[in-house]
Amino acid sequence: MIGGILQPIDKSLVQKIHALVGEGVKTVEEMKRHLRHYVRNDLFAGQNPPPVTNRRYHPKDVDIRNHMYKETVKQMLSKADQESLEEKIKGWKQENPEDLFFFRPYSVSPMEAVPGNTSDTDSNVEAHVTQNLLFLYQTAWQRHLMSRYGNEIMLLDATYKTMRYELPFRLYSSYCVEHCVTEDSNMERVAFHYSTKNIPLASRREFTKQLIKNTEQFLRRMRWKAFHFLNPGQAGEKETFGFKTNNCPPVIEELHGYEDGMQRLIQSVQFKNTKCQFQKELNEDIKLIKNENRLFVKADKSTNFYKLEATKYNQLLNDNITKTYKKADSKQLRKIDVAAKAITKKLGINDRVEVTAQRKAFVTLKDHKDNFLNRPTFRLINPSKQEIGKISKKILENINQKLVNATGVNQWNNTSSVLQWFKNLPNKCESAFISFDVVEFYPSITEDLLGRALDSASNYMNISPDDHQIVLLKLAKESLLFSNETPWQKKNSNGLFDVTMGSYDGAETCQLVGCYLLSQLATIPEINIGLYRDDGLAVINQTPQKVARIKKQICMIFAQNNLRTTIEANKKIINFPDVTVDLITGRFGPYSKPATTPLYVHSKSNHPPCILRNIPEAVNKRPSEISSDEDMFNKAAPLHQDALHKSGYTYKLHFSELEPHRPQYQTKRRRNIIWFNPPFNRNVQTSIGRAFISLIDKCFPVTHKLRKFFNRNTIKLSYSCTPNMKQIIDGHNKATIRNAKMSEESRPQRLCNCKNENECPLGGEYLQSEVVYQATIATREETETYVGLTATDFKTRWRNHRMSFNHGRRRND
């Protein structure tokens, strides 16, 4: 052997090569690096390493490649690649049961094995291929990400014909493939693949806290019931408009035993561990939500959420408020509450009605609008509403019912009434639709328009202008918007009158004004017209030219009432509001907006079982009600069937003709029932319902004084729900805004924003609040000295003083 050139490779190196192949080393160059390190630091540690010409410890590339190949073949389950892959898949399925695998082996026809068929060209092989190789693999976390972020799927074909086997393809979200932006540096889109009405398992602390609260409310109602029975002379009948008393009930000795039993019931509740994959996903999402330092802002008409920094969100909120609102006097809220107190005092319920709660305004994102990514738009929501709106709601309900019966106008309250009107239309084939939508109907209702609607209603019933009800109806519309502890009022109005969406009497006010508008539209001849809130629909059997003239008349009537409309005419098929009606065929069926995917509560949600059992039947009932026949139902059913399947239900949707609604006449007196509403939680092992019923039988035997009012027939149980995902997200948003505000307040505040600090009246502390100051005011006749104290910053007070000097109407600022 000349200098070790012809020496065989050392056995220790062979073993090292085999071990490295098992660890995943694939290339010769990478193997040589590992071997050099092994020889230098392990075999000859502290010694002079052998020269590079020594093939025993520095083998040739071909030798290394041969040993790597032998070990690779040895580790293969089969010499055929696809057979080895098939065996590997079996092992992977056992290791990761939640992952998805699909394997289709490559196969050829028997013709390829016929003697004489020795051609090895691609064309010959392709001619006899009966099945190509296909292998798909998706991990559980990939499936989770795709269901959340991949609203649409695209296929990138990565195959080419120079290979015997087709290359695997990859699945992409369309947002990654197309040149479009779904988020920017300020917003990040998050789409939950389930309904945010799903309820996660409640913790012991949260469940116990809610159970105690609901038990206190239940025992409070029982005490009042017992008190009025034991003291009949002190009970008085009066209209409370649904307001509950805030007074504490007196202690009832006859209920001591039952109250002690309820306390022991709470203390004896036992818990268990419930394992569920869906609940596990909810808990993981809750952890992500709580660990996020940004807000989750809800989209307006989709299931998406957008992550926003608190400072950015506050900026957007302020921008949307200042578009249509201006700062209101801080005394306005006090004036509203004083006026409401006077009304409630006349009704005798001033001890039950709360003052106006300062609920903070918020915004939602209109991501369904065109060009949203480049120019996001928002919807401003004002959740603040007066409590006397509940009284106004009942008064308006009574007025509307009498008004519709007296005038006979088509004032629709639901889809069923629209369909009943459509069924009774004569000569449908010869008629055409006119549909219109009142633009921003709620905020466009002015005090003058409401007054004219009430005057029109007074022609059909006794409504006195001096009646306190009229004062109440208008007072209930006075509203303020609250943000950053500051009241705001509308810019385009001198007063506070505003019909807000979400107010207690907003829908009833809309119906009253709608009846007034329909009475004017009824003057148009040969037209059958109706109104559902802000959507109108009419049918007319005239020429297209005359229909166009009637269309102008409708627009003119709305314009006379300072209302804007969008209108379409000469339509045979129309969507109104969630049904598609066809005059040509006389059929109707469900309608859903494009790209709308229904989401239902999951079968594994932490809802009471009775609710989960009724969901599939309720889903089946709605399309059946608004479908004219089974064919129309079957066209809409797949969308809802797929949503039910994704929510864990096996229910099969089917068309069922519902019996016509018959009015139910009450033949028996309704029993006065007191309900106990404990929260439902799957982690609770104790049967609260069974223990509750047993306690009633034990504490109220037949001989008990209160047995008549407290027994199984008068006290019943119905489970309530713990917070759902939407409420958890809202709580996270409130905490994030609160923390951002606290951190902002902890920063050093700027005390002056003057352009020239040398000219600052307070020497660089112009924005200082709670300042006692003295001013000398000189006029031609005399000089006066004024001493004042400001609760706001001094700059605001100084500006108000200057305005009061120059404008007489601002003298009290």
Automatic annotation (TrEMBL):
InterPro entries from the entry? Answer: CaRF, HTH_animal
* Chain ranges of the Helix-turn-helix domain: 599-653
Query: Which molecular function terms from Gene Ontology are attached?
Result: DNA-binding transcription factor activity
What top-level branch of life does the organism fall under?
Eukaryota
Q: What is this protein called?
A: Helix-turn-helix domain-containing protein
